[in-house]
Amino acid sequence: MTDDLPPMRGGRRRRVPRWLWWLAGFPALVAVLALVALLAVLFVSLPLPPQPGAPAVLLDSSGTEFTQLTSEFLQRDITLEQIPQHTIDAVLAAEDGEFYDHIGIDPVSVGRAVVANLRSGEVSQGGSTITQQYIKVASGDNAQTVWRKLTEAALALKLERTHTKDEILVMYLNAVYFGRGAYGIQAAAQAYYGIDAIDLTLAQSAVLAGVLPAPSIYDPLVDNAASHARYRYVLGRMVEQGTLVAAERDTLLSQQPPTNPRRSVARDDAPWFTDVVRRELETLGFADGAGLTVTTTLNLGVQRHAERAHAEAFNGIEASGAIVAVDPTTAGVLALVGGSDYTNDQFNLALANRQPGSTFKPVALAAWLADGRSAEEPFRAPSSVTLPDADAGNDWTVSNYGGSDLGTLSLRQATWRSSNTAYAEMAVELGPDRIAAMADTLTGRPGEHPANPSLVLGTTETSPLTMAGIYGTFAAEGVRNEVHAIQEIRRGEEVLYRADTSGERVMGEDDAAILTDVLRGVVTNGTAQAAGIGRPVAGKTGTTQDYGDAWFAGYTPQVATVIWMGNRDNRATLPGNETGGGLPARTFASFMGAVHEGLDVMEFPTPSGRAPEDAVVEPTETATPTATPTTTETATPSESATPTETDTETEAPIPAPTRVPTPSATPAPLPTEPRPTPTATRPEPTQPPEPTDPPEPAPAPTAADGGATGRAGTSDGGSTPPTNASD
Length: 727
Prior knowledge:
Blueprint: H1 18-45, E1 57-59, E2 65-68, H2 85-95, H3 107-120, H4 130-139, H5 146-162, H6 165-175, H7 185-193, H8 202-211, H9 215-218, H10 224-241, H11 246-253, H12 271-283, E3 293-296, H13 300-314, E4 320-327, E5 332-337, H14 361-370, E6 378-380, E7 384-391, E8 394-399, E9 408-410, H15 411-416, H16 420-430, H17 432-443, H18 464-475, E10 479-480, E11 486-491, E12 494-498, E13 504-505, H19 509-524, E14 538-543, E15 549-555, E16 560-566, H20 583-595
């Protein structure tokens, strides 16, 4: 190192005093020495953790155990000689290519991960070695803190001093979590392929190595596309590592082996709900779950009612269905059914993305009210309307169900009748960006909803779980909590995690009361009269283009519930041209009637009103809906194309809106936690938390870092191509 600068013009050179170099470098030297000293102290003082093994126990909200997470396949330790070399090569290529060269920690890998994460703007890579990952699995400490990373590094160094590389590798392969309740490579081979580890092929090994960063996401049964991306990544890394020739990789790329259906040999009283818990555990950094006691939000009594209602509605018919119920005061999931037969098909429809149709219109109404507008303002509701330049400079044509000309309606009445044309005019007047902003706020996913006019008609896909969160916020009078399935996580007596249910007000108190008052009319006077249960209920129907999906989303002050009906794999027309006001609304009534049996009747808050009663527009319907629905907009589907109305219309005249009676304020068994106290009357929508989308499939974070996953309620089991919503 030189302390001289280049000669200055004219021949003279200025020297930097040596003491200045020392002064500048001294703090950095002290920091490095302090870090080394700290690692040395930790190295000497901390004992190595015992090998993991205890299962995670899941409790419902009352403390009753309903399943354990590790009982599907028994963990069994095997020797390194019982693991094929290509399996070892695949795991090393995916997780730690320099395993046999580092000392337990790998600063180069850490630096590479930091650079990659900075470039991607998210945590897409982890820098933990396999030794560090084993320490994390064995200790069960998943805290995302600097202190935890320091202790993990110190113990990794210590483990490398006391064990050989092969010993560490086999300990890791016998302990790491592969998903499906399988801990260790032997259990994983049984869980995914029904064979012993010694019989794993190279392709099967690449699949298993690929799921390690986030098993609930990269399991082929959960997301085949994401799994295949990881499969390609592992094979590519093996070529880079020199353990696979490129020609064999090219052959294997198109031959990803299918896995066995998931099976459960453990008692599980709510398998679809357990699937959500597994995902949430991963998101929270507890992917292995070993030794944990997890108190969930599940109410087993409500779950039994949901399963019974689901079976009565969907068993024996072609269409599938999903039911999600949440506690509005906390957004805790009370019950969840994502299909008919979990043993043979684990695709969770409660997490699958589908177009919500007109169940999304209340989001637009919430934005309208937040803008200071009234639900009593009139709109034209002709059979069809073309709005010039409304769709990114193009004309936008929208039609009502069956070509019905509904005359002029208040926005309240347009909600009851689910008028597409009235809501389209409202969306243009308000601005799609305002609706998108409200959707972002209510879902907690900023930037996810495109600001195009058709958003008002439910053309952007979302899941039943997410919709349950939106309607739960309506039921909670505009106070939003993150939808969640886990209340608390303990290890012994130590509380490792507790859900935050303090809530955030995202709608004005009176706005929420008006919106609920409008949605009550959908049940009493509109398209969802089949959803009535003899007590105050608010909700909205939804039916998408060509009867591909049928929804009903509704709530009482105690429970918010979403019913979705459709096809598992496509958006083919439902048998009988089912609509949201049909089987979904009846299933809602069956389920919610049973849940509320014996509960006190609670009233919704009375809105103050934003317009005098005489301002209410009487309907001036000028045409009679046709008996047979006709689809007038069947052009190539797109996000901005025009949906058409398919909801069942009420033929009865619509009365003027009436106000609900004063709430009785009678307490009820559900929910059990107090409702957050409103703090404002008309706040602007607040900025929600950061999005929790799953990471790009490859490259991926290490299992030791918990993976960069979305929240349970935010990770999706599948999706269908974007198509037009029609109601």
